[in-house]
Design a protein that fits this description.
With 311 residues, the chain is of the alpha+beta class. It has one domain (29-203, 256-309): CNF1/YfiH-like putative cysteine hydrolases, CATH 3.60.140.10. Helices cover 26% and strands 26% of the residues. It has eight helices and 19 strands. The chain has helices at 3-19, 43-46, 81-95, 165-169, 172-184, 208-217, 258-269, 293-296; strands at residues 29-34, 37-42, 51-55, 63-65, 68-70, 101-103, 105-106, 113-115, 124-125, 128-131, 136-142, 146-152, 157-163, 191-195, 205-206, 225-227, 254-256, 276-278, 303-309. The strands form six sheets. It has a six-stranded mixed sheet with strand order 8-10-13-12-14-18. A four-stranded mixed sheet has the order 3-19-11-6, with no helix packed on it. The protein has a three-stranded antiparallel sheet with strand order 15-17-16. A hairpin with a 2-residue loop joins strand 1 and strand 2. The longest helix is centred in the first third of the chain and has 17 residues, at 3-19. The protein is globular and about 50 Å long. It starts with a helix and ends with a strand. Bound molecules: zinc ion.
Length: 311
């Protein structure tokens, strides 16, 4: 695609966006408060009596962070393992998933999808997991990356996905749907998807080389990006100009909307738009509620998104 065509597309989308009415807060998201914790859930998931699921926030927990006690659910340098284990138990209780066995992953920003028939003793490498076995609580950890939970209402199967920019580019969400189809015979039309809190298109600055990677992979990639504006750009769409090096200043960073990219990816697999529930929370905008690695760096905690089938 010629750069001018891309510029046209971006300008057109921008005009459409500014003309569209502001999106109301998604009514399909719920807050569950239990044991001092605040857990986010999707109403359509919560309706399924055989399912447990939830996205953690930083509230509650026993991990000391400054003057606060927070719910850190990942093993980080600044926190003790016993705190994290205790927090995980608190989180499982708050979800009503105390009797399920937690199956976390050693995440590596890959497109590796694991099939769990039971929760392994040691966390295994991977960035998504699928199961149809009751009693296995799939979980991914995030602090900016996108946590995604999937459930097949008919076949009773679930998936948990960790999608940062690398995993999104490698289509990990689509691959998880593929694994559900392969192992459980899931049809995308029966799948519900919850795309949880992550760093938003408002805050997630990335280099233009990442935009180029996405543009080479996804036809609708111009939709995922916005200009990062400092207010003094001579050319508002400078980042799309493919000028030879040395003829203009280095390209500006751009803003990437990972929620949109994953939404689009799930739709492309056949998951119905009405069955995709996207949180409007940005980790970087809400340090009071969520952890953000970009905002808090090494001192950031980890949130967890978990899903499982009751025993
Ligand atoms: Zn933000």
């Amino acid at each position: 695609m010629a750069p001018t065509q891309l510029q046209d597309i971006v300008s057109q989308r921008r005009a459409e966006r500014s003309a569209a009415p502001r999106k109301p807060a998604p009514h399909n998201w719920l807050e569950r408060r239990a044991g001092g914790l605040r857990v986010l859930q999707v109403a359509a998931f919560a309706k399924l009596p055989w399912l447990v699921h939830g996205f953690s926030t930083r509230e509650g927990g026993v991990s000391p962070l400054g003057a606060e006690k927070v719910l850190n659910l990942g093993f980080t340098d600044w926190d003790a393992r016993k705190n994290v284990s205790q927090n995980r138990q608190l989180f499982q209780s708050a979800l009503g998933a105390k009797t399920l066995s937690l199956a976390p992953l050693k995440q590596l920003h890959s497109d590796l999808v694991r099939l769990f028939e039971y929760a392994p003793q040691e966390a295994e490498h991977g960035d998504a997991a699928v199961t149809n076995r009751p009693g296995v609580l799939l979980a991914v950890q995030t602090a900016d990356c996108v946590p995604i939970l999937l459930v097949d209402r008919k076949k009773r199967a679930v998936a948990a996905i960790h999608a940062g920019w690398r995993g999104t580019l490698r289509r990990i969400a689509a691959k998880a749907v593929g694994h559900m189809h392969m192992h459980f015979g899931s049809t995308p039309a029966d799948i519900l998807a919850a795309i949880g809190p992550a760093i938003g298109g408002c805050c997630y600055q990335v280099g233009t080389e990442i935009a180029a990677d996405f543009l080479s992979q996804f036809a609708d990639a111009p939709d995922f990006f916005d200009e990062f504006r400092t207010g003094d750009e001579p050319n508002p769409v400078q980042w799309l100009n493919q000028m030879p090096p040395g003829h203009q200043p280095p390209p500006k960073n751009v803003l990437l909307d990972l929620h949109k990219a994953n939404h689009s990816q799930l739709r492309a697999t056949g998951v119905a738009d009405k069955n995709i529930f996207i949180s409007n929370l940005c980790t970087a905008c809400r340090p009071d509620l969520l952890f953000s690695y970009r905002k808090q760096g090494a001192k950031s905690g980890r949130m967890m998104a978990a899903i499982g089938i009751r025993i």
